[in-house]
Design goal:
The protein is of the alpha+beta class. The protein is built from 11 helices and 13 strands. It has 2 domains: 198 residues; 150 residues, no CATH class. Strands 1, 2, 5, 6, 7, 9 and 10 form a 7-stranded mixed sheet that branches. A 4-stranded antiparallel sheet has the order 4-3-8-11. It has a two-stranded antiparallel ribbon with strand order 12-13. Helix 1 packs parallel to helix 11, helix 5 packs across helix 10 and helix 7 runs parallel beside helix 9. The protein starts with a helix and ends with a helix.
């Protein structure tokens, strides 16, 4: 049971910033039959600041002039961290044929580099991606590969891979990549985890005469847990889909704030339960909001409906895998200690108060754009 306390403590002591967006860059590669490649590469300013120290006066506010003065350094960074090959021969250095620009994505501002390279006229293509290698293991490069007269493909690249063939990219490869990203996303999404744990904490207990008692049958606890997770899954899958395909769009700030509020409600409900065995209703209602939070991780995929569908399926399966792992770890430990005061007072009451407190800080941060 100490593992549960440790997990709660680690989650609560972790950064209270936005937990829904991984460090990404976005690369679109258009390749002609003659070997000419035109590329647009969007790199987050916060990542460039880590690598190049853009914030010259250290006031935590990047200005356009601070970015522009580092133009040459940014271009050199692009040259050294993205390499194309054709017929196992390196393509020539990129030519930057447009000024450095700025674009906004769901998680902030990005520097936009527009460049070209004249590669060999024939042969198999390959790419090597090294941005943020040995700096951020969770960083990914989302690549839209658009070869002339061929179908577009979407890849998710990490900085620790060698040359990846662009000729052998399969739907299975992309599906697996997005599945891995979904698993990583749920484990890095502290507010999602705390919301789910808040709802799962009482599943091994029964509320009788204003007090908690441990359940006698572990199957009942498992059934309650399954109903909660299923309701949460169905709800966030619905809104993840409608948001990922841009059928419904909500302001990120309000979505993130509502997610923090849902964690508070779920945690405080353990102190004064109203729905009790109907907690799956809380999971469903607030799961609709969490789906919009999940969608922010996919909203910048712009390579077409087919690629978006593949990303949606793979990512959602990864999220569900991560959720099931949480349940598989938590339920046996909770059931074994359900009758102890350590669980009923320390874990359920104390843990719920801790979760509500941290979620309250999240809510303040997101509503008022504060930094702690």
């Amino acid at each position: 049971m100490k593992k549960i306390i440790l997990l709660l403590s680690l989650l609560c002591c972790s950064s209270i910033g936005y937990a829904h967006k991984a460090s990404d860059s976005y690369l679109t590669l258009n390749a002609s039959n003659t070997g000419l490649v035109s590329a647009r590469w969007d790199i987050a300013l916060r990542d460039l600041d880590v690598l190049l120290g853009l914030d010259a006066n250290n006031d935590r506010q990047l200005t356009w002039s601070e970015v522009l003065v580092k133009t040459n350094a940014i271009q050199q960074l692009a040259q050294s961290n993205l390499q194309l090959q054709r017929q196992q021969q390196d393509c020539p250095p990129y030519l930057f044929n447009a000024p450095l620009a700025i674009d906004r994505h769901t998680d902030g501002q990005y520097a936009v580099l527009t460049m070209t390279s004249q590669c060999s006229a024939a042969g198999a293509w390959a790419v090597k991606y090294q941005l943020l290698a040995n700096v951020d293991a969770g960083h990914r490069g989302i690549v839209n590969w658009l070869p002339e007269q061929q179908s577009a493909q979407t890849l998710v690249l990490s900085a620790n891979e060698l040359f990846i063939s662009l000729e052998k990219v399969s739907a299975q490869h992309s599906l697996l990549a997005f599945w891995r990203d979904g698993v990583a996303h749920i484990w890095a999404g502290y507010d999602h985890i705390l919301f789910l744990l808040s709802l799962l904490l009482p599943v091994v207990l029964l509320r009788q005469h204003q007090s908690w008692q441990g359940v006698d049958d572990w199957k009942k606890a498992l059934w309650d847990a399954a109903s909660i997770v299923t309701a949460f899954t169905v709800a966030h899958s619905l809104t993840l889909a409608v948001a990922a395909f841009h059928w419904v769009s909500l302001p990120s700030r309000w979505v993130e704030s509502a997610i923090a509020a849902s964690v508070i409600v779920a945690a405080l409900h353990n102190l004064r339960p109203v729905l009790d065995r109907w907690r799956w209703m809380l999971a469903f209602v607030f799961g609709l909001i969490h789906g919009f939070g999940f969608a922010s991780a996919l909203s910048d995929l712009t390579s077409g409906t087919d690629a978006q569908l593949l990303a949606l399926v793979g990512f959602n399966l990864g999220v569900e895998t991560g959720q099931l792992a949480i349940v598989a770890i938590f339920i046996p430990l909770a059931f074994l200690s359900r009758n102890s005061q350590y669980y009923q007072r320390g874990i359920l009451t104390g843990g719920s108060l801790m979760i509500a407190s941290v979620a309250g800080l999240w809510l303040c941060q997101r509503l008022f754009n504060l930094t702690f």
